[in-house]
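Researcher: I'd like a candidate sequence for this fold, 555 residues long. If you have to choose between options at a position, lean toward the conservative one.
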């Protein structure tokens, strides 16, 4: 399936000493020439067909609606059924177009990982005085003679790295071809409806949901995505790819609904209360549509990693769960929980923070498969009075718990390393969820935290040594002291000891929601941050960004 880029690097000579049988010359050269970006672009092209297909289906609805008032009888009924069948055929295609994009994007991502591993293997060979020839065979460099005792282990190691990179590329190619072949067959034979009783119970956990989904045929799964996207899109335990297809359908439908409301509300009314109400509703609809349009543009952004829409609720301030890269396929997964004032409008910006962590992961571990999730599925506080209370964090706990369990249940292959990171009030959400419900996480990270609801890392129920925190020296969150301490400090400030009395008081480690997780007495581990304030932990020059990436990778 691969396409071409520049030729593979060639060796400068040959030697009869070799570590093992050389890999396939065609496979080695093909991987060097492979262009992951071309496959990403092809997937985007397939996904781009969804708009025209959707408009054609809507056009059929419009025409039938125009004919219905003046046409009745058997012929009208038959024509309506025929047009309805055509419309259903068009709408059934929509999830398939998204699925093709997913398959090609995931193939491109794995191909990119394989190329990174091959590049690292060639660099390893060069550093060890070895050559990798055009056939992929690893040989000693005659220009840099070394003893056989020293060459043997290095030859074996580099040859294994080359074979591993080629094996990953080959497996990705075979899998993508099989998935596309199966989708092609299914598109011809059609989807299969699922009887009403074949649904998980409302209280089913992610593991049970995962088993239910696995028990369906591919045709039944595709039917559910197309006909019940609201159900599929919100079910923790359903694979990420299926949830993305369902939620993208919901996003398109929601945008169409808002656009229709906008058209209806655009006609002015005579001055008076009704006109005032119309103007207010019009402003709200415009804002909601603007937020959805911004999210849609971010989801459609070209390049890797591909975005997956795992949850969407445009009501109120709006909620969204978006992954960069497929968490079901990645070996390391970050779940990022933002803090105060986060809403649907801020989702694209918050995704930028997650993307920066992924970029650093790629730089630190170029052969690693990683994914990052923006988890904005809670009602974040809008104002300080709300942010001074724990209610919204406590309400979010069960939902975050289920989401993390769902990531475990739907993951393919060996379990991923899962890291959950909370910023500001989001750190209280993460800490409260871990304390009260447990989180399926291998590490917890708190940045710019006002406290996480516990006094010691041991209360968070994650492996020892896997609770991390960072607070910038100039982060104003350091001033978020408990109310009683603030009052005491105000009193002490009038004494001769002045500000030093607060330090002597022995409670300098206490923040609004408990002990500072960056304090040594909390029992966690700290990583440094530069002076970037409360929101600068993701700035490119901040060492905190590298710290977060290393934790995600488990380094």
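Model: Candidate sequence:
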């Amino acid at each position: 399936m691969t396409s071409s880029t520049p030729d593979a690097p060639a060796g400068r000579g040959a030697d009869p000493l070799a570590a093992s049988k050389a890999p396939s010359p065609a496979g080695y050269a093909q991987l060097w020439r492979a262009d992951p970006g071309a496959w990403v672009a092809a997937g985007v092209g397939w996904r781009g067909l969804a708009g025209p297909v959707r408009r054609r289906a809507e056009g059929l609805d419009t025409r039938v609606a125009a004919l219905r008032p003046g046409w009745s009888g058997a012929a009208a009924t038959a024509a309506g059924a025929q047009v309805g069948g055509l419309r259903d055929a068009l709408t059934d295609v929509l999830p398939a177009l998204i699925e093709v994009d997913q398959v090609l994007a995931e193939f491109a991502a794995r191909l990119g990982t394989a190329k990174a591993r091959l590049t690292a293997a060639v660099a390893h060979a060069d550093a060890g005085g070895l050559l990798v020839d055009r056939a992929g065979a690893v040989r000693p460099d005659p220009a840099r003679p070394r003893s056989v005792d020293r060459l043997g282990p290095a030859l074996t190691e580099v040859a294994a790295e080359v074979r591993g990179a080629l094996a990953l590329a080959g497996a990705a190619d075979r899998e993508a071809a099989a998935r596309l072949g199966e989708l092609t067959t299914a598109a011809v034979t059609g989807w299969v409806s699922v009887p009403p009783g074949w649904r998980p119970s409302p209280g089913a956990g992610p593991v049970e949901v995962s088993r239910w989904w696995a028990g369906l045929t591919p045709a039944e799964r595709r039917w559910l995505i197309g006909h019940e996207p609201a159900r599929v899109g919100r079910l923790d335990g359903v694979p990420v790819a299926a949830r993305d297809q369902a939620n993208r359908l919901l996003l398109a439908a929601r945008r169409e609904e808002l656009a229709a409301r906008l058209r209806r509300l655009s006609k002015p009314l005579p001055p008076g209360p009704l006109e005032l109400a119309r103007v207010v509703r019009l402003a709200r609809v415009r804002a909601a549509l603007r937020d959805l349009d911004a999210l849609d543009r971010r989801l459609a952004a070209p390049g890797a990693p591909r975005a997956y829409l795992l949850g969407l609720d445009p009501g109120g301030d709006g909620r969204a769960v978006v992954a960069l890269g497929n968490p079901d396929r990645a070996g390391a997964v970050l779940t990022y929980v933002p803090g105060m004032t986060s809403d649907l409008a801020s989702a694209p910006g918050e995704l930028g923070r997650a993307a920066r962590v992924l970029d650093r992961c790629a730089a630190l571990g170029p052969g690693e498969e990683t994914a990052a999730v923006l988890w904005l599925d809670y009602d974040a506080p809008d104002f300080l009075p709300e942010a001074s209370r724990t209610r919204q964090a406590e309400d979010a706990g069960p939902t975050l718990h289920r989401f993390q369990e769902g990531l475990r249940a739907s993951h393919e292959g060996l379990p991923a390393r899962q890291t959950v990171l909370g910023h500001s009030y989001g750190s209280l959400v993460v800490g409260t969820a871990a304390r009260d419900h447990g989180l399926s996480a291998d590490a917890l990270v708190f940045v710019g935290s006002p406290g996480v609801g516990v006094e010691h890392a041991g209360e968070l129920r994650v492996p020892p040594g896997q609770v991390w925190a960072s607070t910038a020296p100039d982060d104003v969150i350091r001033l978020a002291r408990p109310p009683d301490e603030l009052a005491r400090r105000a009193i002490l400030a009038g004494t001769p000891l002045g500000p030093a009395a607060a330090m002597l008081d022995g409670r300098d480690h206490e923040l609004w929601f408990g002990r500072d997780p960056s304090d040594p007495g909390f029992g966690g581990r700290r990583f440094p941050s530069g002076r970037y304030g409360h929101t600068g932990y993701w700035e490119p020059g901040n060492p905190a960004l590298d710290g977060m990436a290393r934790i995600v990778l488990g380094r």
